[in-house]
Structures are given as C-alpha cells and as structure tokens.
Amino acid sequence: MANTETTTGNPGVVGLAGFGLTTMLLQFHNVGWCGVGPIVALGLVFGGLAQMIAGFQEFKCGNNFGYSAFVSYGSFWIALGLIFILNHFNIYHSSTTDVGWFLVGWTLYTFILWIPAMKIHGAMAVTFSLLLIGFILLDIAHFGYPELVKIAGFELMLCALSAWYMMAHAIFAQVFERDVLPVGRPWIK
C-alpha cells in the first residue's frame, strides 16, 4: 500500500474524518434516529482524541488554521461527551440553557474561523458556513425553540458531508495524482 518515497501525510484527512463522522452521528441523534451512547464514545475517541492529534500534527506543518480548528473542535467533542456523562450519572446536570451557552461560545469561535475559511477555498467556505448556521440554529433551539434541533440536524448533516468531501479531495488527489474532486475558488481574494 505504501510507496517507497518518504512523504509527509496530511493530518487534515484524519481531522476532517473525525469531525465529519462525529458531526454526522450527533445529527442522527438530533433528528431522532439514534441514542446518545454511540455519540459519547465516538465523540471522545474520534471526534475528540483523533481530531486533537490531527490538530497537533497541523501545528508541525505550520498550519495555524488547521491547528486551531482540529484541536478546538476535538476539545468540543470531549467536552460534549463529558456533559453527557455528567448528566447521565447525575454528577452535574447541565440544563438546556447551560448547553445553550456552551453552544453560543462555539458559535462565536466558529464565526472567527468562518472568515479565513472563505479565503482558503470554496469547499472550506461552504463547510464553515454550514457549521456556523447549524450552531446558530442550535443556539436558538436551546433558548426556547426546541423544534429547530431537528432542522439543525439535517442542516449539519450537510456540513458533515462537506467535511468528508474535503477529506476525499485530499486523499483522492494523492492516490490518483490529479484533482478528482475540485474544492472551488476562495470566496475572498
């Protein structure tokens, strides 16, 4: 499988895989298709640990955007998993409003990353736009409009698919040695 040339892997493919899969599974929960157990497990390991490792590898590559995004969203998944665990064992019960404020913080962080995402390429801009819209929908849902959770769930499934598209772009480009899945021009020059 591996060739004899020594090349540096792209940590973004693991970070995007972890982000996409964990985001997708949480949305399956948000629309009522699955319980919370698989989300906690996947969130701690793939969304959390693996994404953080990918982020620290991005640091070695000198990519501050990927470093910040993967380490931070990895932390998001670990924190969300801990919230679910604390609630389940009744150690500290986070109210809907508590989780709402947690999400507001992540919305603000996502807004900051959304701006440079528009300068990277079109697929990155789409992914972060969908993520930002999804967080805003979840914020509103947690402050009195719970029916928006399901709408956010379907919207964030598109975000997860967009992240996987970028992952597939990077993997396919290396394997096929050409740009099989174009990511589009940046929205900001």
What do you see in this structure?
Helix 1 packs antiparallel against helix 2 (37-60) and helix 5 (122-142) packs antiparallel against helix 6 (148-176). The chain has six helices and no strands. The relative contact order is 0.14. The protein is 76% helix and 0% strand. The longest helix is centred in the last third of the chain and has 29 residues, at 148-176. With 189 residues, it is mainly alpha-helical. The model has no long low-confidence stretch (mean pLDDT 96).
Descriptive labels:
single chain; 189 residues; globular; mainly alpha
Oligomeric form of this entry? Answer: single chain
Query: Uncertain regions: pLDDT < 50 for 5+ in a row?
Result: none
In what range is the share of β-strand residues?
under 5%
| Shape annotation | globular
What is the string of SSEs from the N terminus onward? Answer: HHHHHH
Rg value: 17 Å
Main pleated sheet: none
The portion of residues assigned to helices is over 70%
Count of DSSP strands:
0
Q: How far do the termini sit from each other?
A: 38 Å
Total number of helices: 6
Mean pLDDT: 96
Helices and strands: which structural class?
Answer: mainly alpha
